[in-house]
Amino acid sequence: GFLFFLSQLRFLERPLPAYGWLPNRWFSNPTQELTWMHLVLFVGGLVILAMAVWEYYHKLREEMAGKTHEPAGGRQVSVVRILAVVGYLATMNILFSLDSVFAAVAIMDLKTQFPWMVAAILISSVIMIFGMIPISAIVSKNKHFAVLMLSILAVIATKLLVDGTGAHFSNGLLMFIIGILLLNDVAQAMLDRASRRRESRATQKS
C-alpha cells in the first residue's frame, strides 16, 4: 500500500527548494537540481539506518542482560498492557514494512519497475511468514547472521543516502559490497567452527 501511494505522488518529480534546512542539501552541490524524490530517498536511508542501529542495540541489550522468564501469573495482565504491546508490534511492523519498501526503491526504479517491486515485496513477505520460525532458529544458533543482516541494511541505507544527495551509487557496487559481507561472514563462521573443533579435540585429549 505504501509503495502504491508513493508511486502516485506526482509532485515527487518537482524540483526541491534550495532550503538550507533540508538534510540532503547539506551533502550536495547548492546549484544541483534535486527533486522531492531525492528527499524521500534520503529520509528512507535515515529510517533504515535508524532501524538497523536500534535492532542491534536491542539484541546487544538482550545478550548482556540474558534471557529472563517471568513465572506464570506473576504479573496481572491488564487491558492497557495488552494495548501497549499491540501498539508496539503494529508500529514495529509498519517501520519494517517501510524498510522493505525503501530497500526496493533503492534497487529498482519506481516508474518503470513498479510491478517487479510489488512482486519482490510480496514474495519476501510470503517467505517471512512461512520461514519465520526456521529462520529465527538459525539466527538464534548463529548470532553472526543477525549482525550480517543489519550490516546489509546499513549498506542499503548508505545507497539511499547517497542517491538522496543527487550522487550515484550503482546497484553493481551495492551487490559487490553485499557479496563481500557474505563472504566475510562465511569465512568467519568457518574459522569459528575450526576453532571449536580444535578446542574440542584438545579437551578430549586432556
Key terms for this structure?
single chain, about 210 residues, mainly alpha, 6 helices, about 0% strand, globular
Mean pLDDT metric:
79
Uncertain runs with pLDDT below 50, 5 residues or more? Answer: none
* Main sheet summary: none
Query: Helical segment tally?
Result: 6
Structural class: mainly alpha
Q: Give a count of the beta strands, DSSP E runs of length 2 or more.
A: 0
- Residues in helix, %: over 70%
Q: What is the string of SSEs from the N terminus onward?
A: HHHHHH
Strand content: under 5%
* Straight-line distance between termini: 62 Å
Report on this model:
The chain has helices spanning 2-7, 36-65, 79-107, 114-141, 143-164, 171-205. The chain is mainly α. The longest helix is centred in the C-terminal third of the chain and has 35 residues, at 171-205. The protein is globular, with a radius of gyration of 21 Å. The mean pLDDT is 79.
